[in-house]
Amino acid sequence: MSEKVTALRDELVSKLNAATDAAAVDALRVEYLGKNGSITGLLKGMKDLSIEEKKDFGQKVNVLKEEAGKLIADKFEEIKNAEIIAEINSMPEFDISTPANLNRGSYHPITLVQRQCEKVFKSMGFHVEDYSEVVTDYECFEALNIPKHHPARDMQDTYYLENGQLLKSHTSAAQNAIYKKYKDALINEGKPIKAIFPGRCFRNEATDACHENTFFQMEGVMVDKNISISNLIFFMKTMLSEVFQKDIKVRLRPGFFPFVEPGFELDISCLICGGDGCPSCKHSGWLELCPCGMIHPEVLKAGGIDPEEYTGFAFGLGLTRLAMMKYGVKDIRDLNSGSLKALAQFTDDE
Ligand code: DAH
User: Looking at 30, 60, 90, which one is the last position of a domain?
Assistant: First the structure.
């Protein structure tokens, strides 16, 4: 029996090595770990074994199950990274060595993109909020429906202070304070909550061309009676079309985040080919841009808002990624380099 376990492991490893995209890896996850998967199937074949054999074999299958889960997750990560690198490589070249005019001050490219987004959202009646970089565990996780030991915390490892506070791993950490700040005006005066909050975020990451331990996001929320996914799509489409100065099509795919239900990944039509398909978008016509969703009832409740009466949407736009896409910056580290030669090349195109 235990040869079966080893054989299945070897088979999975070789199939994973051959997989080249996320869909293929997901198919392997279902094939091996799904309800009718081959690893799950091993347990079903145990009925003819003695108690001792069952114990030994069951243990081996469980170890394999855990290992298979990890192998599959690692492969997903590897493919995702390769996709990001391919996307960055296919962007128009930005030449770090171009001489810049250093006699004149200039805005950082992230500031430029942030201001463009703020301008559009302000014109649509959103407040722009500033929020602390040091937050509590409650703000960053608990209030967002991510309790202690929830696996979603693994993706958001950050830097902790000795007093238990932490450097915020996402701008969503400000959501709870924003709801509390505006809920009275919502409930008593019927004023919808409309706010964006750009900010610096931190994660315990090894840095490379597409990962940084310090980056910028811009969160946005809108809460009122009868807010729906159509409102979310409208605001995102309007903002992105302004920022990129062309009509941008958007689409939503399902995505999981504990603080929204349903959650989505928002894709935009490819900036290079306009959706026809080209190497930049891997011929799909779409680029992944921004996770979003309808605010989870528990998150509204934590902010003092009754989810029976109010609904809302939230999105978390990666400002660093947006700046890289807009200006064709291929190495994320250039943005934090402090090198005036690189950074002074960008100007506000308004
Ligand atoms: N906070 C998430 C992250 O950094 C991104 C995110 C996802 C924000 C979905 C949202 C949302 O507001 O609705 O990974």
Answer: 90
